[in-house]
Design brief:
The chain has 238 residues and is α/β, with parallel strands linked by helices. Helix content is 37%, strand content 14%. It is built from 9 helices and 6 strands; from the N terminus they run αααβαβαβαβααββα. Strand 3, helix 6 and strand 4 form a beta-alpha-beta unit.
């Protein structure tokens, strides 16, 4: 499906998040600090049965940004690995082959496919790896990840425009990839209060095996959300 067909079918009203929502992202650290006890109430008696999980951070972030997810999954009996690429600089074409190489090495060592949890752009990369190499992936969980438009419907589109990239061309390229289906289950977590990625861009209207799960809170808070943390063990153990 090209951009024109997409707009005809689903409308042209999709835009990046409003300035009000983006401003709300700045309050996320304060909200987290006001309720530190919430994490003590998370379920602890979960058996992840040593299932392997790789964590992929969002644009501009590194493995440290997913420390709470990593900590909780390990407490629940999962084994976790970072993606091995350091900070996510946003060049998908450069990052993806390196992640695939790291993932393949891990799959060969463990002799089992691995679940991918990706935050924002990390989730987009996780989906594309599952699309291209389903033999390496058991399932995918995305957190506020744009699945249509590339960066076009995000608050960081200007970063790519400064690199001389066309938002329309990136949107068309993203839609073109749907001619090849994703053959692994995808669980897409999103929030309508997301101030970085338009929540409508997180909805996959094309893939067959996608579960969309709405939560509350900001984009920056998805990796620290009690709702998200509660969901992850069940989604990864499905």
């Amino acid at each position: 499906m090209n951009t024109t067909e997409f707009q005809r079918r689903y409308g042209t009203g999709m835009t990046p998040p409003s300035r009000r929502l983006l401003a709300g992202e700045l309050l996320t650290p304060l909200r987290l600090a006001l309720d530190p006890a919430q994490y003590k109430r998370l379920p602890r008696h979960i058996d992840g049965r040593d299932r392997p999980v790789m964590l992929l951070p969002g644009l501009g972030a590194g493995p440290a940004s997913m420390w709470l997810i990593r900590r909780y999954l390990r407490r629940c009996g999962f084994r976790t690995w970072d993606w091995g690429q350091g900070k996510n600089h946003g060049d998908v074409d450069q990052l993806t082959p390196s992640v695939i190489e790291c993932l393949r090495s891990l799959v060969d060592r463990l002799n089992t496919p691995i679940a991918l949890v990706g935050w924002s752009l990390g989730g987009y990369i996780a989906r594309e790896i599952a699309r291209e190499h389903p033999e390496l992936v058991s399932r995918v969980v995305t957190l506020g990840s744009p699945v249509v438009g590339g960066p076009k419907y995000t608050a960081v589109s200007h970063v790519y425009e400064r690199r001389g990239l066309s938002m329309d061309a990136l949107e068309a390229a993203t839609l073109e990839r749907y001619t090849r289906p994703i053959e692994r289950p995808v669980h897409a977590i999103y929030s309508e209060a997301d101030g970085v990625v338009a929540w409508q861009a997180c909805i996959d209207r094309f893939s067959d095996d996608v579960e969309h799960i709405q939560v509350t809170g900001s984009h920056v808070g998805l990796g620290f959300s009690k709702q998200v943390l509660r969901l992850l063990p069940e989604l990864l153990d499905a």
